[in-house]
Design a protein that fits this description.
Rossmann fold; 546 residues; alpha/beta; 3 domains; six-stranded parallel sheet
């Protein structure tokens, strides 16, 4: 059969539902093959957004998300999305076109070494040089992308290879089970936990994959060991539980860090190297138990004494089978931390000042979003408030990027989430700076007829950097800009625009938008003026008194 047909048949066999992207001249054979397949092309307005959507699809489903671009500038536009998927451990395949490799017809026009460019930011990258290799290279790309630790892979399909004849030699996925931890390591872990006096559970990014949340929830309920989460570990265990002590959003000085400092054992489940450990092992006798799919990458502040390597869910189950609750476990200080934090968290949640304060914004959104509702955060200073104050109740209901931490991903990620879960409320929460980096995807969202809410938190500046600038005692400089009329902007694409002029207007408007099918954009002016005082001064003072 035609090589491009074989390529698409191989994608279908891998279970691909969507290809997100922008085709070019060099993709036309492949595009024709997609047209007659079961795969749906989701045409976006920028390749970066296509990559963000594919990566988020991978993050939510565990399957490999697929995106497409042409050669040259189309491929270079995927670089940020490749890094996003790679650092965030999201399985994604990028397919890029290329000029004919057997007989050049345009010299070096638009030709760069895309494979070489992708090598540092992917798990696997290759040019397909023969139709006979298509089936094996696609199977290998999918295998590598989804294997722990998941990430980005890339295949370049030249124009002449796509058009040639190839034998239909599809390769099926082999039956693979993830390795489980060795019995002696389980015993070492059990002994370590039972000997501790102040054990504390820390849940990281890798625990938000392969669905170990059921076992971790059981572990918390049965052992009654308090837990904290990293930003990308939010929601693995219901954060409304009494044993939840907080999120490690800030570097130090928050209530959660007092609990971590007090613990004599950190049961570190799903630690990911992209999120620095919120504790320092150097210079103290704190013990760390590392439970993960892969061995720890040792650095000056992270060198666990015991490691349990294998499927996380199975490891937790195996530990629970042997572990007994100990009478000498002492959680009294952790309960003090919890009480102090719960006393502080409501601060500002009912504040009527406008522009709206971050604490009020987070509280109102939490009130209207159901337990399974998904918020997709772009990158900005508001991310700190949501990570810290918004209690997630289910895995991957807070799509937060604490890996590449790129701006521009919030809207495309929300769109992909809505496609994966069409009956679940989804909200994109973006700063005005990050939103404008991929705002053209409003047209895509309207064209796809998505029911989506997009909150634009408008401070007319790059607020995160402005906060850091203030904290370092520099003069405010170089970070202010203007914005369009966001209501007219969304309406020009065929969506529905709203603007609030008082804090009390937000919650009823959100409730209305959740009930009315449309692409809703809400312009919300926000005031970050107290960020530095609260996050860097007040919290340190309050938490030090516990």
């Amino acid at each position: 059969m035609k090589a491009s047909d074989l390529f698409v048949k191989a994608l279908e066999q891998e279970g691909v539902e969507y290809i997100f992207g922008i085709p070019g001249e060099e993709n036309l054979d492949l595009l024709e093959s997609v047209r007659t397949s079961s795969i749906k092309l989701i045409l976006t307005r920028h390749e970066q957004a296509a990559g963000f959507m594919a990566a988020t699809y991978g993050r939510l489903t565990g399957k490999v998300g697929v995106c497409l671009s042409t050669l040259g500038p189309g491929a270079t536009n995927l670089v940020t999305a490749a890094a996003y998927a790679q650092l965030g451990a999201m399985p994604m395949l990028m397919i890029t076109g290329q000029k004919p490799i057997k007989a050049s017809k345009q010299g070096r026009f638009q030709v760069i070494d895309v494979v070489g460019m992708m090598r540092p930011i992917t798990k696997y990258t290759a040019q397909i040089v023969s139709g006979e290799r298509i089936a094996s290279q696609i199977r290998e790309a999918f295998r590598i992308a989804s294997a722990e630790r998941p990430g980005a892979v890339h295949l370049e399909l030249p124009e002449d290879i796509a058009a040639e004849e190839a034998k239909p030699n599809l390769i099926t996925e082999s039956g693979i089970r993830r390795p489980i931890a060795e019995a002696k390591s389980i015993k070492q872990a059990v002994d370590m936990i039972e000997l501790a006096k102040f054990p504390l559970l820390l849940i990281g990014a890798a625990a938000n994959r392969k669905m170990p949340h059921k076992m971790l929830s059981r572990f918390v309920d049965e052992m009654q060991i308090p837990f904290v989460t990293t930003q990308m570990g939010k929601g693995v265990v219901d954060e409304t539980k009494e044993l939840f002590l907080g999120n490690t959003t800030l570097s130090d000085g928050d209530f959660v860090h007092r609990a971590i400092a007090h613990a004599d054992l950190i049961i570190n489940v799903g630690h990911d190297v992209v999120e620095k450990p919120p504790f320092f092992m150097r210079g103290n006798d704190k013990k760390v138990l590392h439970i993960n799919f892969n061995a720890a990458e040792v650095d000056p502040v992270y060198f666990p004494q015991v490691e349990v390597i294998g499927d996380i869910g199975n490891s937790i189950w195996a530990i629970m089978e042997r572990l007994k609750r100990q009478e000498h476990w002492d959680f009294s200080y952790f309960r003090k931390v919890k009480a102090a934090e719960e006393n502080e968290l409501p601060h500002g949640c009912d504040d009527d000042r406008f522009p709206i304060y971050p604490q009020r914004l987070v509280a109102d959104i939490r009130k209207v979003m159901p337990e399974n509702g998904i918020i997709a955060l772009d990158n900005g200073v508001y991310k700190i408030w949501f990570a810290r104050n918004y209690k997630a109740q289910r895995p991957n209901t807070v799509l937060l990027d604490n890996a590449l931490a790129t701006m521009g991903a919030g809207l495309p990620s929300a769109m992909a989430a809505k496609m994966v879960y069409p009956n679940v409320p989804v909200m994109a929460i973006c700063g005005d700076g990050g939103f404008m980096m991929n705002s053209q995807e409003l047209e895509t969202a309207v064209r796809l007829n998505l029911h989506l809410i997009i909150l634009i938190l408008r401070d007319d500046a790059y607020g995160m950097i402005k906060w850091k600038q203030t904290n370092m005692s520099f003069e405010t400089y170089g970070l202010d800009y203007g914005n369009p009329d966001f209501v007219k902007y969304i309406e020009s694409y065929g969506g529905t625009g709203h603007i609030i002029n008082a804090a009390g207007e937000l919650q009823p408007l959100l409730e209305h938008c959740l009930s009315e099918h449309a692409v809703h954009l809400i312009d919300v002016a926000i005031d970050y003026s107290e960020n530095d005082e609260i996050l860097n001064n007040q919290l340190r003072l309050l938490s030090s008194k516990v």
